[in-house]
Every structure is written in structure tokens, then in C-alpha cells.
Specification:
The protein has 572 residues and is an alpha/beta fold. The chain has helices at 81-84, 111-125, 141-152, 169-174, 182-197, 201-204, 213-219, 225-229, 254-263, 285-300, 390-394; strands at 16-25, 31-39, 45-52, 90-95, 130-139, 157-163, 175-176, 179-180, 241-246, 269-274, 312-315, 327-330, 339-347, 360-363, 371-376, 405-408, 416-430, 436-444, 453-454, 460-461, 465-470, 502-515, 520-526, 548-553, 560-566. The strands form 4 sheets. Strands 13, 14, 15, 16, 17, 18, 21, 22, 23, 24 and 25 form an 11-stranded mixed sheet that branches. The chain has a 10-stranded mixed sheet with strand order 1-2-4-3-5-6-9-10-11-12, sandwiched between helices. A hairpin with a 5-residue loop joins strand 19 and strand 20 (460-461). Mean pLDDT is 94; it is low at 392-399.
């Protein structure tokens, strides 16, 4: 990277100074513990700061194919000191309150954590070796914490680069469309509780990670001040933002990155969306160069040229590659030249569990005649159906075959690029008081097989993107809703009446995919998690047990998908 065409900080010979368990005082008198990695340069250096519950002392052994090699200072989802310190940066990792070495009441992803981050940033900026400039870098938890820190506006925080970071704790992580996203967050909470109580922290911090996080998440099942306190507040985020997302992150982080770019009050904003695992792109040569150019510009005042480039950089997927796709620069998000195109649901047969018999097609002309398709809201197993049974209610889909309804386009006459946010605009009813709508977009090849993409965990994912909505949460916030991105209020439940037809606009998370000529676009509309969901699965509530759900199409109920089609070069 020393031969980069950009003007960036070059590595210098140095001795690495490692300071373990540095005590950083908080405003309430609590002492939190950090590790500081810095070069022994005479000149002062800026800080790349992280805070998380992931334990600063846990060494990460990366996979062999990572572009940065293993060393004793690597830590999960954070910057590598052996690469950054020679380039004139200090790397600081703070154990959040009540986690790792730090004492106190554990409150992951909280307002308290944001206050603590503010205090730590300002303390670090005053250290004799620090230039006074602090930036934040890191993936996932280390990215989400940046949104909350930035809204506190610490004076010494000069820029952030949230890399795959959820921002709205309610909509992005805990309640997808109002449906509790139990699968990932439940496992995450149990795993990190175990890491603390059954791992090394028990010996020096026996009360670490003691919290009622899962109880609080379920107790606060509507949006409220509880979630707003623990989420980004876009009007307060004014520090320069480079928001970096992953098309494969459609069940956790991607929405935060695109919403952050669109809504943050920052004057200087950039957006990049890539593919691949949760961590390979961050540690890639291209990823590190983008990071270095960003932090050199804002923390060191070096003109790296990064602010002269178009603000949006997108990796355009063309389907099925295990390697990276080429990037393309754009001037805005969503793209100005988007042709917002409706594909209508055309119901042709009654629902069936047979995979090869779909319920209908996706057509560009709204069907004149009304039609409906009714399907079971719950899957049956050998245990039957019972709202109190985790087997029957949660796992029933594994034994009952395909459920819900599916629609597919004819084979595409030409390559068709879809890049941007999507909407599933549906008319539905149920025999129950509520109804869960799970939408899955799939890329079907000429042989009828799903085209897989690389997921955040490096696994093959047989779908393009997803959306969700609990029908009782269908109320929209008119001030925040856009034609291509509905924004649900989630502040009250509008219960269904048996057989009553209601209109639902389902937010389907943004994506980018070139569906190749001869391929077909497929949509599944289901009462529970469909193909490609794991590990981001959901709790299937008791209102699903024994319910009959109905989708309506045609006539006065023109259910459809709104797709962001990008014209080929030379076309409009």
C-alpha cells in the first residue's frame, strides 16, 4: 500500500507501545478499562477508538484467507494496531461498563454507553501523546456504538466510519417490522453472558454482563423512548460520516448504513456498500485504503482526494460470485435515474406445499379480476399446533414443507439491474387478530435453482433480500415515509378483525442485483421465516397458531412489488 496513487500516511519504523488496563474516569466516578496501542513517535498522533462488550483482551485468530495476518494484537471487528500504528495512529479499545475488565452495571448498546464513550474520547484527546483528534472505526457493535456516540457530539470526535452498523435498535435489530427478531439477538445475549460468566472474566469481574437486556427488549415491544434513547438521532449527528454497509446484511446492519447516509445532519457524508463476509472487506487492502484516506483527511488534514470522489460507492452484484464484484461510483442514494417499476401479483392457483407449484406470476399490468389465496399461518409437526409449544409454533415450518405463497416473473428478456430500496404493497386478511408477513426476494436461474450470495458469516445465502411486517403494526409515520421506503410508527397495535381486508406496505431492505437474462425474480410471502433467514430468525407469536391468512390481488386490491430498476447505459 506504500505505492498507493493517493497521498496517504506511509508506514514508519517504530516500537509499539502497549498499555494494558488503562484507567479512564467517567463523569459519575466509575473507572473503565482500556488497552492503548500507540507508536513511540515524538509527534502526537490521532486515535482510532472502539468501545464494546466483546472483551478487549480476547485475541482474534483470523481465517487464513484474511488479507491481514494473525498477530497477538488482533481483536474481533477492530482495527489492527500493527498496521495502523506505523502509519501514525493510536488504537484504543475500551471495555464497556459491566463487560470484560470494566466494572458497573452492564447495559449493552445503551445511552449510558454513549455517555461513557463521550467521556473516554475527551479523556483520550487530552493525553500528552494524542493530537487531540479522535475518530471511530470498527464493525457491527463497534459501528453501532459510533452512531450513538456521534449524537452526543463530543468535541474531540472529528469523524466516524460505521462499518456495517445498525442504527435504529428497534427497527434494525430487535423488531423487524414489529416482529421480534429472537433468533440472532437471543443467541448473542446467551453467548456473551456465557463468555463472561463461564469464561475468564468471572475470575476478575464476577458480576460482569449482568443485565435484563432480553427482558427489556421483550417488555418494550412497541417503539418508545426506551428505543430512541438507545438509537441514532439523525438530526444530532453532524460529524463527518463514512457509512459502510453490506448487501448481505439485510437482516441486521444494512438499513442503518443507508438510513444514516440519507438522514444524518452531517454536511460531509459518504456511503459505500460492499459484499462478502462481515469482516473480510474491512481487513482487505481496498477496505483499509478507504479507511486510511478517510481518517488521514479528517484526523491529519492530508488531502487524500477522498472528498473529491462521488459520495456513493456501490459493489454491483451480478449473481453467484464467491469473489468480490466491481465497484461503481454514484452521486446519490437512491439513484436519481431509478425507474420505479411495479410488478403485480397475479394469483393463478390455490396455495400448495409443493415447491415446484407456485401460486402465480409477477406481471407488469395489474390484473383486472380480483383473486385471493389462503394459506396456514402456522406449520404443523408431529406435535401438532400449540401456542405454548416451541416445537410446534417456532419450528413447525421445518416439517410442514413450503408455506405461504410465491410468485415469479417470466424469464427476463435482458439483464435487469435492481439497486435501491424495495416495497411489497399488499392487501391481506386473517382469521386471527394479527398476521406476520415475511417477504423474500430470490434470484432463480434458468434451471430453476436459487443463485446464492455470500452471507455475513461467509455462508451461501439463497436469497437477495428480505422484508417483514406484523399486520397490527401497519400504521405509517407520514412525515418519515417515502414512496420507496415506508416508515412504520410501531407505536400502537391496530388489531385485525376476522376476514377484514387491510392494506400493508412492507419495507423490504435495500439491495443491488443484476438479474441475468433468462433468470427470474421470485417473491415468497410467508407467515414465518423462509429460505436464507438463518441465523436472523424470529419469534412466531401465538396468534399464528391455527390461523388462516389470505393475500388479495387484482381489481381494487392490486398487491405488487415496487422495484428500483436501473436502466442500462444509454437507456432511460
Amino acid at each position: 500500500m506504500s505505492r498507493s496513487k493517493y497521498k496517504v500516511s506511509q508506514p514508519r519504523k517504530m516500537k509499539l507501545i502497549v498499555e494494558k488496563d488503562v484507567q479512564i474516569p467517567m463523569r459519575d466516578g466509575t473507572i473503565l478499562y482500556a488497552d492503548v496501542f500507540r507508536p513511540n513517535f515524538k509527534d502526537k498522533v490521532p486515535v482510532l477508538f472502539n468501545t464494546s462488550v466483546y472483551q478487549k483482551d480476547k485475541v482474534w485468530s483470523p481465517p487464513a484467507d484474511l488479507e491481514e495476518k494473525a498477530n497477538p494484537y488482533m481483536c474481533w471487528e477492530t482495527a489492527n494496531p500493527l498496521w495502523w500504528c506505523p502509519r501514525g495512529y493510536a488504537c484504543v479499545r475500551l471495555d464497556s461498563r459491566g463487560a470484560g475488565r470494566s466494572p458497573g452495571k452492564s447495559e449493552p448498546s445503551s445511552f449510558q454507553e454513549a455517555l461513557d464513550t463521550y467521556d473516554a474520547i475527551e479523556w483520550l484527546a487530552k493525553q500528552p501523546w494524542c493530537s487531540g483528534n479522535v475518530g471511530m472505526s470498527g464493525i457491527s457493535y463497534h459501528a453501532s456504538s459510533q452512531w450513538r456516540a456521534a449524537k452526543m457530539q463530543p468535541p474531540s470526535l472529528k469523524c466516524i466510519m460505521p462499518w456495517e452498523g445498525r442504527a435504529d435498535q428497534y427497527r434494525d435489530q430487535a423488531y423487524h417490522g414489529g416482529i421480534f427478531a429472537l433468533g440472532f439477538i437471543g443467541n448473542w445475549w446467551l453467548t456473551h453472558t456465557a463468555h463472561h460468566l463461564l469464561g475468564k472474566p468471572r475470575s476478575y469481574n464476577p458480576d460482569a454482563f449482568h443485565n435484563d437486556m432480553m427482558w427489556n427488549y421483550m417488555r418494550n415491544d412497541l417503539d418508545s423512548e426506551y428505543w430512541r434513547m438507545n438509537s441514532a438521532e439523525w438530526d444530532k449527528i453532524k460529524v463527518p460520516v463514512y457509512s459502510v454497509g453490506n448487501w448481505g446484511g439485510f437482516s441486521m446492519h444494512l438499513r442503518g448504513n443507508t438510513e444514516g447516509y440519507m438522514n444524518a445532519a452531517a454536511r460531509h457524508k459518504k456511503l459505500c456498500v460492499h459484499t462478502g463476509s462481515h469482516f473480510h472487506p474491512y481487513h482487505s487492502e481496498e477496505g483499509r485504503l478507504d479507511q486510511l484516506r478517510w481518517f488521514d483527511y479528517w484526523l491529519k488534514g492530508i488531502d487524500t482526494g477522498i472528498m473529491d470522489e462521488p459520495p456513493v460507492k456501490l459493489e454491483i452484484r451480478t449473481g453467484g460470485s464467491k469473489q468480490r464484484y466491481p465497484f461503481r461510483f454514484e452521486n446519490e442514494w437512491p439513484l436519481k435515474r431509478t425507474k420505479w417499476t411495479k410488478y403485480y401479483l397475479n394469483i393463478e392457483r390455490a396455495p400448495t406445499e409443493k415447491e415446484e407449484l407456485l401460486e402465480g406470476t409477477l406481471v407488469k399490468t395489474p390484473p383486472r379480476n380480483p383473486a385471493k389465496a389462503t394459506y396456514s399461518g402456522s406449520g404443523a409437526t408431529s406435535a401438532g399446533v400449540a401456542s405454548a409449544s416451541s416445537l410446534a409454533t417456532t419450528h413447525g415450518h421445518g416439517a410442514s414443507g413450503r408455506n405461504g405463497v410465491s410468485f415469479v416473473t417470466p424469464p427476463l428478456a435482458e439483464d435487469t439491474e435492481i439497486t435501491g430500496p424495495l416495497v411489497a404493497h399488499l392487501w391481506v386478511s386473517s382469521s386471527s387478530e394479527d398476521m406476520d408477513i415475511f417477504v423474500t426476494i430470490r434470484n432463480i436461474d434458468p434451471d430453476g435453482h436459487d443463485v446464492c450470495e455470500v452471507g455475513q458469516h461467509g455462508q451461501p445465502v439463497p436469497c437477495v433480500t428480505k422484508g417483514w411486517l406484523r399486520a397490527s403494526h401497519r400504521k405509517l409515520d407520514p412525515k418519515k415515509s417515502l414512496p420507496y421506503r415506508p416508515f412504520h410508527a410501531h407505536d400502537e397495535r391496530q388489531w385485525l378483525k376476522k376476514g377484514e381486508i387491510v392494506e400493508c406496505r412492507v419495507e423490504v431492505w435495500p439491495t443491488s442485483m443484476v438479474f441475468k437474462k433468462g433468470h427470474r425474480i421470485r417473491v415468497d410471502i410467508q407467515p414465518r421465516d423462509g429460505i436464507g433467514s438463518a441465523p436472523y430468525t424470529h419469534y412466531h407469536g401465538d396468534y399464528n397458531a391455527g390461523a388462516k391468512n389470505t393475500i388479495y390481488a387484482g381489481g381494487k386490491t392490486p398487491s405488487h412489488l415496487l422495484l428500483p430498476i436501473i436502466p442500462a447505459k444509454g437507456k432511460r
